[in-house]
Every structure is written in structure tokens, then in C-alpha cells.
Design goal:
heterodimer, A: alpha+beta, 24 helices, about 50% helix, B: Arc Repressor Mutant, subunit A, 3 strands
Chain lengths: ~850, ~120
């Protein structure tokens, strides 16, 4: 029985156990002697309670002592403490900040019940794996598929939102959703109710569910029963519910939800794809089973609709996995870089601690001689390490909180996760764990070495250095830091090259002196084409008369700003197969658009106000469109089918980058603004007013606002953007990612330089007498210099070689981010080497001078 | 008694009850741990029951503070157990015990003046 007790005694601190363990056992034996049954149990219970209390108190005593010792020891060397805390703070802060991004972009379970069962579905076409579904296909999926508990369709639906008639509305992004939308996601409303089957009926009530933030903004969080006056596109809506603050679906941009009711005509065309689909797997059904069923279903639909559904499959992906690959890679690359910075910070501190250990050798040896055992000393040194890390962790938490809003832009807006919070328990937890681990990591090796210090150190009485092994260890740490910095430098260099390359891409239009103002028209109110056309003409004629304006036009969307809007094309008599999957992007434009945008007209003519539904339907197409269907021939006058009508090519313009500077775009088709059937393709009503002007932006915006208010009261005017800004937004994630990585690389480099400096300074200081002796024996300054710089060069060379090899691996891992810059880009590697060499040189500068300035007589006398 | 050691004594007061009782026990002669426990329990009529862990934590601290030390004298073979260690009061420990007793006495005196002490109220 007492064997068990002896085992439990292990909970006590070692020194105490060794001192009193045997006596504690004896007392338990004496207490048990002569007792039976319940009385024995009582003794045991008492002993165990006593043991637990004592262990807790003893450990608390030790912690108090160690804390007091740490406080004194850190206060004695404020310079070291400040540097160490700063280094740890930056290292931990970088990791906490990147974790907060990675957590939200990749890790955190989505805020829905049983999120693993939620999936997104798309039509899978030969050229697009993720195409929205047509209403008819969506309806057939929902009716036939057995693998899902429920399925819902939704689509992006912008609204002009106002709270009372007459006020200028705001343009907000909403989502039109089918009956099962909220039931599929499984989220209960914060107030009121969600939308359900009762709302999904023809001519159903005009009801809306608001995002929590919008409810606060518009109504100050007032009770639903007192709310009235909400107008969406000018139509009164009743607010029936408010979603909880962390509900964001389909994306963080969605601010309100309205019922989507399909009308019979919408089911006629299976090539009109605009329905996003979310579904919840039925209990017990695996993703693979659901996919197998969808494959069968897709083949059945293909057989039933051989033209429209030719080669049409169904893509299913877990909701969590919709993060784009590039975002994923960016986040992973940053996580890797942050980790490298932390490792450098740790090894730097380990090196500093090692140097301090030498200075404290006597103190520790005295303590050991006075009876403190090795475990106790180790514990004390680790406490100091964790304390430094804890201070650094606190600083790191601040760094992370400050950088979170900036880094948040790396989390795709399309993810249904909440915005970054200033204080995030998950991030704090991560920070605490990293803090503890790093505290132990950087102090363990030095502590083990120091605790080994024995009485010999006392007798020695010398202030000699670390000894050969310690010096080598520190040298190794410096080399490792150089290697890690080189990796970060190479990666940063490659990303700079990639950014340059992307920025050098010609978007296909002029970015200088062109400003775009958004004036979105409410879909139902402006469904009549002629009325819309007259509004455009009135606005444009007034805008063209403004001072400084050289041209103005309307278009559906700006390139780069919106990449979608692609429709199938077919060309009678074309050699290409029945090409329903060959698509082109559709934009309605007014005359003068190409002029205003600086898109060269290559052949034929611009669209014209005289192109109406009464005249032949025409189109201006891009060069690549003409090249695809009529290579080497004159495309003018050629017929093709597009956007539900046959059209004739009237002109050819140069291509523009619609989807982005780094992506290939579909060819473009521009249709005259008057050749639209009433109410059709309402998604494409021109709303971007493009103005070429030499003047200032602010007066232009207020003039446009005035003009719009006079001609179309109730139409919102959104802030003006220059096309240069539109282009720059396209490269924003890239520049942000580069800035973060460059900051990490710079930090790593400074730390490595400091590490080298610290090592050399220490070794010069501890070898003063040797250097003095050499000089006394006739060594010249140059030789002493070679001694120090040579060492720095060797350590740097070793580190840089390892770093270059590792860089090559890192570069290949992020190849997808490099926009075609080869991973082994010599310029980036050379630049990284040069920067590392300069840093190493500056790190060795002061110690070298110190060494040369050693006065031989003084140095030798000092011994 | 020098000023320095008086200050040292004062810094330890008031004593935790367990410490005081251990001092009182050892004042009567050297004891090993188990004997201290029994002695304290007997003297307080079982009201003060020290756990073994609490006892040795106190002993460790009292040794660090110089109140007690390990005794080299051991009892006759037949009564001894080699695992046992015997503790005795140091001179400093005795001084501290005296100072604490005086402090407690003054408190009792105060209580008596105000009519709280036993026998007066």
C-alpha cells in the first residue's frame, strides 16, 4: 500500500521528496498501524488530502521564489530584458497575427450547426468547374437528389436601400434565397423569424431579413414591431427578422436576404446560369456517396436535355473548402514565414541566454554549492525564460490586435466567416500556447548548460568564455539565423518580381484620367429599355458638358471590377463543335465607351444610339472573339447567336483583361444599350458611368450627383474610383502579402545581424587577452581584423549556402503565387545573398573595431 | 540581543499556528516528526491535527529560517528507526518563540482590560 503512496509523493518537488519522503511514508505506516476497515480508509483519505495540499503549496512557494529571483535578475539587466521582450514580442506577434488570418481563412469551423455536412453545388462544364446552376437544373437536383436533407438556391441581389421615401438610397448587397435557405444552414434568427416556405409563393409578401449590423445602422436595433419604412429599390418591405451578428452567408458582403421566387419562364433556358446552391447532407450520408448520386443524376439530365446539358456534370465541395487555392497558398506562405521569424527570435534569445549564463556562472555555482539542486536551478532558469516570453507574448498580442484589421484583407470576402475581432479568444489561446512553448524552447538548452555548472566554476575564478563547445553552438545558431533570413529574402524577392510582372500587364484600357461613378438603377423600376436609354442620354449629355470632361459613357460593369457575366456563344456554320461551353463576357454599352476607356477600335464602328430593337441586332466584339471564330477573315457582318438573339458583328475592338491581370479572360461582346428586350438580362443594365476628365474628382462627383438627382431621384451615386484604383485593387492582395513578407524578412535579417553582432562582441570581449598577446607579439591590426571578420564570413557563408538550398524548396512550394517568375530566378537569389552579406558585414563592424582597438599592455595586465 | 537579530525576529511575527506549536513541542526536548504530530494533537485536545505534509513543509521552512535544526543525538538503538530524523530548537528559535509568546500575552492582556478574557467577563 505504501508503494502507492511513495508513487504519489512524486507530485512533490524533488528536493522536498528526497529530504522528507521516507519520513512521510513512516508516518503513514504508523497512522495505519492497528487500524482496520473504515478507519484505514479515513487515514488514507486524510493522507491524500494532506499530500495534495502540501504539493500545491510547495509548488506555489517555489514559483514565488523563482518569480522574485526572475524579477531581480531581469531588473539587473534592463538592456537585455528590453531587447529580449522586443524580439519575442515581434516573433510572437507575427505568429499570432498570421494565425488569426489562417484561423479564419482555413481552420475555424464555420459558424453553422454541423458545418461538415454543408456543401456547395455547381454545374461542371468543360471550361468551368464552378458554374452557377440554371434554375431548371437546380430544381431538378433538389427534386431528385436523395443524399441531402435539404437544398437551397440563392443569388447575389443588389438593392438600393433606403429607410424613407425620397432619401438618397445606399447600394447594398443582398441575397435572394429560396424557401429552404435558412433551414439548410440551420441558423436561428437573432430577432423575429427567418424566411420559410410561406414566403416562397408567387405574389408572396415583400419581406426581408436583415444582417445584424444593417439592423443597427438603419434602425438602431429597435424592436421589429416598431420598425417601418424599409424600401428596397423603392418598394416597401417588411423586416421580419434579424440574423445573429456572426451570420454571414453567402459572404461577408451579404447584408440582407429576400425571398427568391422563380417564375415559370425562368425554367425554360438551361443555359442561363445564375443560381448558387447550398445543401446539407442527410445524416449518415458521406460526401462520396452524395457525389456518386450527383454523377448519376447529371448523366440522367444530360440524356434528357442533350443540347443544353451536354457534358454538364455537378461539382460538390464542402463549404469549408471554397477558399480559393491562391488565398490558401498566401496564408500558408505567411504562416511559414512567421514561423521562421519566431525560430530566429528563439535562437537569438537562446544565444543571448547562453552568453548571460557565462556571466552568471559564479552566481549559479554559489547557489549550487549552497545546496540548491540541479532541478531547482533548471526550474528557476526556465521560469525566467517563460517570464521573458510572457512579457513578449503580451507585446505580441498587442502587435497581433493592431495588425489584424490590415491582415484581414487576406481573408477572402467570399468566406462566410465573421470579421476579425479585436480580442479573439482563439487567437489569445494560440498566443499563450506559443508563448509558453517559445519560453521553454529558447531557455531550455542554455538552462541545461548552466545548471550543469558546478563547484569547478567557483575555483576556476576566471572570466573565460563559453568554451569551444558553447562557441560552436552559438555559431551554429547564427548560421541558422542567416539561413532562415536568406530564405525569407529570396521569397520576398521573388514576390517583388512577380508583383512587377503583374503590374506590367497591360489591362487593355487607359488607367490615367478616367473616373468611374456607379449609379445603379432599381431593376423593376427601370425594366423598360427605352426609359432607361433616355435617362442615360440625358445624364451623359449633361456630364459631357461639365468642364474638363473629354468623354463619358455608360457600361454594365468595369473590367477587373466584375469578372463574371459570361454567356454561351454559337456561330452558325462554325467548324468548332456545338460550342455551348465556349463563352464570351457580355456588356451593354452606350456610344463613346471605347473612346472614354481608351480601348482602340480596330475595325468597323462603335455602337450607336440608332441601334434599336427595330434595326438589325449588332455587336462590337473583341479581337480574340473575331480570331476565335473567323481566323484570318474579315469578321464584319458575320452573324452569331449570343444572349438569346442572333447578332451581327459591327465592329472589332482590342481585348481587355476582364477577369484580372493574372487570369485569362473570355473574349468580350459589347451590345448597344438600346438593343435589349424590356426586363431581360436585368443584371446587365448599364450602371457604371465612365468619365474621361482632366479635372478633379470631387467636383465631378458632386456635379454627377446633382445631375442624377435632377433626372432620376432615388438613384444612389456611389463614390468615384479612378481606373488606376480599379487596377490597383486587383493587385492589392499581392501587394499586402508582399509587404507582410518583406516585413518578416526585414525583421529576420535584423535579428540575424544582431545575433552575429552579439556573438562576435562576446567572443572579442572574452578573448581580449589573447588578442592583446597576439598584438604584443607583433600581429598587426589587419591580422586581428581578419580574425574577427573571417569568423563572421565563415558563419555567414555556411548559413547562406544552407539558406539558398532551402530557398529553392520554398520557392517551388509557392510557385503558384509567382505569376510565372521562375522559382530559381537568379536575380532574386543574388539580391538576397547580397543583402545577407551586407548585413553580416555590418553585424561584424563594431566587434572588429573593438578588436583592433585592444591595447596590448592593458589587455594583458587585465588578466 | 542585537538590533539586527531583533529585526529578524520581528520580521517572522506573527507565527503561523503550526510553527508556534512545533516550537512549543520542541521546547520540551528533541522530537522526530511523528512524535511532534502526536504531541501537538495531544496538547490541543485533538483540535489541532497537523497533516504530515503540512508538518514537513513547516519543518523545511523553519530550518531555512534557522528556528530549528536537525539533532545529531539519537535515542537508544531499540527505540530508533533509521528513517527518522530528530529536530531541536535553535537559540534563535527559542528567541522567536519567546517573542511570539510575549506578543500573544500582550494581546490577551488587552482583551482582559476590555473585559473579553476568560474569567473577567
Amino acid at each position: 500500500m505504501t508503494r502507492l503512496y511513495r508513487l504519489l509523493l512524486r507530485a512533490l518537488p524533488g528536493s522536498f521528496r528526497r529530504e522528507y519522503g521516507a519520513e512521510l511514508c513512516e508516518i503513514l505506516e504508523l497512522n495505519l498501524a492497528g487500524k482496520r476497515g473504515l478507519a484505514q480508509v479515513g487515514v488514507w483519505l486524510g493522507a491524500l488530502g494532506d499530500l495534495a495540499r502540501t504539493a500545491a503549496r510547495l509548488h506555489a512557494d517555489a514559483l514565488r521564489q523563482d518569480a522574485a529571483w526572475t524579477r531581480r535578475s531581469l531588473a539587473r539587466s534592463p538592456g537585455f530584458t528590453a531587447a529580449a521582450v522586443l524580439v519575442m514580442g515581434l516573433g510572437i506577434g507575427a505568429n499570432a497575427a498570421v494565425f488569426s488570418v489562417a484561423d479564419r481563412a482555413l481552420l475555424r469551423p464555420l459558424p453553422f450547426p454541423e458545418p461538415d455536412r454543408l456543401v456547395r453545388l455547381w454545374e461542371k462544364l468543360p471550361e468551368y468547374s464552378d458554374m452557377e446552376a440554371s434554375p431548371a437544373n437546380y430544381r431538378d437536383w433538389e427534386d431528385a437528389a436523395q443524399s441531402f436533407q435539404s437544398m437551397a438556391g440563392f443569388h447575389f441581389r443588389p438593392y438600393n436601400v433606403s429607410v424613407s421615401a425620397g432619401a438618397e438610397p445606399r447600394r447594398l448587397t443582398g441575397s435572394a434565397v429560396t424557401a429552404d435557405f435558412f433551414a439548410t444552414l440551420g441558423v436561428a434568427p437573432h430577432r423575429g423569424r427567418t424566411l420559410g416556405p410561406g414566403d416562397d409563393v408567387p405574389e408572396g409578401p415583400a419581406v426581408a431579413v436583415l444582417d445584424y449590423g444593417l439592423w443597427q445602422e438603419l434602425f438602431g436595433g429597435a424592436p421589429l414591431s416598431t420598425i417601418s419604412g424599409l424600401r428596397l429599390d423603392g418598394v416597401p418591405y417588411e423586416v421580419v427578422g434579424v440574423m445573429p451578428p456572426d451570420f454571414h452567408f453567402p459572404s461577408r458582403q451579404a447584408r440582407l436576404w429576400t425571398p427568391r421566387r422563380f417564375v415559370e419562364e425562368e425554367f425554360e433556358d438551361r443555359d442561363d446560369n445564375y443560381v448558387d446552391v447550398v445543401a446539407r447532407l442527410a445524416p449518415g450520408v458521406s460526401a462520396d456517396e452524395a457525389r456518386a448520386e450527383l454523377d448519376v443524376l447529371a448523366r440522367r439530365l444530360e440524356a434528357a436535355h442533350p443540347v443544353s446539358n451536354a457534358d454538364t456534370g455537378i461539382t460538390m465541395r464542402a463549404l469549408r473548402d471554397v477558399t480559393p487555392t491562391r488565398s490558401r497558398q498566401i496564408v500558408l506562405a505567411l504562416a511559414g514565414a512567421a514561423l521562421v521569424v519566431l525560430l530566429i527570435a528563439c535562437s537569438n534569445l537562446a544565444s543571448l541566454q547562453l552568453a548571460r549564463a557565462v556571466a552568471r556562472r559564479r552566481e549559479l555555482a554559489v547557489r549550487a554549492a549552497l545546496g540548491a539542486d540541479r532541478g531547482r536551478l533548471l526550474r528557476q532558469l526556465l521560469t525566467e525564460g517563460v517570464a521573458i516570453a510572457a512579457l513578449g507574448g503580451a507585446l505580441g498580442a498587442v502587435v497581433a490586435a493592431l495588425s489584424a484589421p490590415v491582415l484581414d484583407r487576406l481573408v477572402p470576402r467570399t468566406l462566410p466567416v465573421p470579421d476579425a475581432a479585436l480580442v479573439d479568444p482563439r487567437v489569445l489561446g494560440f498566443t499563450a500556447a506559443v508563448t509558453l512553448l517559445t519560453g521553454l524552447a529558447f531557455s531550455l538548452a542554455p538552462a541545461l548548460r548552466s545548471a550543469r555548472a558546478d563547484a569547478a566554476a567557483l575555483q576556476e575564478g576566471s572570466r573565460s568564455g563559453l568554451g569551444a563547445r558553447g562557441e560552436r553552438f552559438r555559431g551554429g545558431l547564427v548560421s541558422a539565423q542567416v539561413a532562415a533570413s536568406v530564405v525569407l529574402l529570396v521569397v520576398a524577392g521573388l514576390l517583388i518580381r512577380a508583383l512587377w510582372k503583374v503590374q506590367a500587364v497591360d489591362p487593355g484600357f487607359d488607367t490615367a484620367n478616367v473616373v468611374a461613378v456607379q449609379t445603379p438603377l432599381a431593376i423593376d423600376e427601370w425594366s423598360e429599355t427605352s426609359r432607361r436609354a433616355e435617362l442615360y442620354e440625358r445624364i451623359l449629355s449633361r456630364v459631357r458638358g461639365l468642364p474638363g470632361v473629354e468623354g463619358a459613357a455608360y457600361a454594365s460593369y468595369l473590367p477587373l471590377d466584375f469578372g463574371g457575366g459570361v454567356l454561351p456563344v454559337s456561330v452558325p456554320g462554325s467548324d468548332l463543335p456545338e460550342d455551348r461551353e465556349l463563352r464570351a463576357s457580355l456588356r451593354y454599352v452606350t456610344p463613346g465607351y471605347f473612346d472614354a476607356m481608351g480601348i482602340p477600335l480596330l475595325l468597323g464602328r462603335d455602337v450607336s444610339g440608332a441601334d434599336t430593337m427595330e434595326t438589325p441586332l449588332v455587336a462590337v466584339v473583341s479581337e480574340s472573339f473575331a480570331e476565335r471564330y473567323w481566323p484570318g477573315q474579315n469578321p464584319l457582318g458575320r452573324p452569331f447567336d449570343f444572349a438569346f438573339d442572333g447578332r451581327i458583328v459591327a465592329g472589332v475592338v482590342a481585348d481587355v483583361r476582364v477577369r484580372g491581370l493574372e487570369r485569362s479572360s473570355e473574349p468580350q461582346v459589347y451590345l448597344p444599350y438600346r438593343q435589349a428586350r424590356d426586363g431581360w438580362l436585368n443584371f446587365y443594365y448599364p450602371k457604371e458611368l465612365v468619365v474621361r476628365t482632366a479635372g478633379e474628382r470631387a467636383p465631378l462627383l458632386s456635379a454627377v450627383r446633382e445631375i442624377v438627382r435632377e433626372n432620376a431621384p432615388g438613384v444612389p451615386v456611389a463614390a468615384a474610383r479612378s481606373l488606376a484604383e480599379v487596377v490597383s485593387e486587383d493587385t492589392e492582395p499581392r501587394r499586402l502579402q508582399l509587404r507582410v513578407l518583406a516585413a518578416f524578412a526585414g525583421l529576420a535579417l535584423v535579428l540575424a545581424g544582431l545575433g552575429l553582432h552579439g556573438l562576435l562582441a562576446f567572443s572579442v570581449a572574452s578573448r581580449r587577452s589573447e588578442i592583446g598577446l597576439r598584438m604584443a607579439l607583433g600581429a598587426r591590426g589587419g591580422e586581428v581584423l581578419r580574425l574577427v571578420v573571417g569568423r563572421a564570413a565563415r558563419l555567414t557563408a555556411v548559413g547562406a549556402s544552407i539558406g539558398l538550398l532551402a530557398s529553392w524548396g520554398a520557392a517551388r512550394a509557392i510557385e503558384a503565387l509567382l505569376a510565372g517568375v521562375p522559382p530559381a530566378d537568379p536575380a532574386s537569389f543574388a539580391a538576397a545573398l547580397a543583402v545577407a552579406a551586407v548585413t553580416a558585414l555590418s553585424g561584424s563592424l563594431l566587434p572588429s573595431l573593438e578588436a583592433v582597438r585592444v591595447d596590448p599592455t592593458e589587455a594583458i595586465r587585465g588578466e | 540581543m542585537t538590533n539586527e537579530s531583533r529585526e529578524e525576529i520581528e520580521s517572522l511575527l506573527p507565527l503561523p499556528p503550526a510553527t508556534f506549536h512545533i516550537l512549543m513541542t520542541l521546547a520540551a526536548g528533541d522530537r522526530h516528526g511523528y512524535a511532534i504530530l502526536q504531541d501537538v494533537a495531544a496538547r490541543t485536545g485533538g483540535r489541532m491535527k497537523l497533516g504530515a505534509g503540512t508538518l514537513y513543509r513547516s519543518i523545511q521552512r523553519m530550518r531555512d529560517q534557522g528556528l530549528i535544526e536537525e539533532s545529531r543525538r539519537r535515542p537508544a538503538r531499540d527505540q530508533d528507526d533509521e528513517r527518522r530524523r530528530y529536530y531541536r530548537l535553535t537559540r534563535f528559535g527559542a528567541a522567536v518563540a519567546r517573542a511570539e509568546s510575549q506578543r500573544l500575552g500582550e494581546l490577551v492582556e488587552l482583551a482582559r482590560e476590555r473585559g473579553f478574557a476568560p474569567g473577567t467577563a
